[in-house]
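Per reviewer request, we include the raw input and output of the structure prediction for the construct analysed in the revised manuscript.
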Amino acid sequence: MNANPLKKWATALAAAATITTAASAAFIAPNTPFTPGVPLAPGTSFASDPTLAGTVAGDQTVSFTDISPVPAFSGTLRSVVVRNTAGLLDFYVQLANTSPFQVNVDQEIFRLTLSGFNGVGTGPGDLLNVNFRTDGLAGITGAGVVNNGTVAPTTGDRDPGIPFRGVGFNFGSFLDDPANNVDPGETSRFLLIRTNATAFNSVSNIGIVSGAGTAFARSFAPAIPEPGNLLGGLGLIPLLGYLELGRFRRRSPVASQA
């Protein structure tokens, strides 16, 4: 007996709406502020999105320490560039907090920002597909040894305060959601930015923010047509990083008492 065609149509429409909602939840437009940001849960995986398959085109791990007068936190940052099956580049970063454990927010990392991702969105109006992986780097050839990580970002943004209108990932907040911060000994999930770029370089500066201050590390980014303009602004990144941290601290009675 054939099913009711109206019922079949309604079921298909509901399924399509669910897929659209899930997929569009991680698309972020330029000038989207960090508050409230765009929710990234529940993340993505190779099983749910086979287009994540690809081959590693670049892979590096660097160490970082905050630039406060008395450094309070440190860690490592792994950056991976993947050329996917469409020939476009997906950019991954994963941070590990290697700070000595102390019972205060100074060692808890709650935000990470990346510069150099303006104008490479895969959607209309430079929409960027920003997400995180729940399955490490499954489906990617050449990924080597992978730590899937345990701490997922809660929201993403493209705050105009970030240098070059980059991308921000928030791990809760050291005030509102400290349980979701990347604490000493913890490693984040792989954070993902999907782009329409076909070439990359190592000119992206990443800002890693904790309750104590900001650290900076070099990472991969899409190749920018105007390298002179980009390099001319790199010297401003530490200053802008401090200014961005200041916005958090002004909101923070905990930080103001430190």
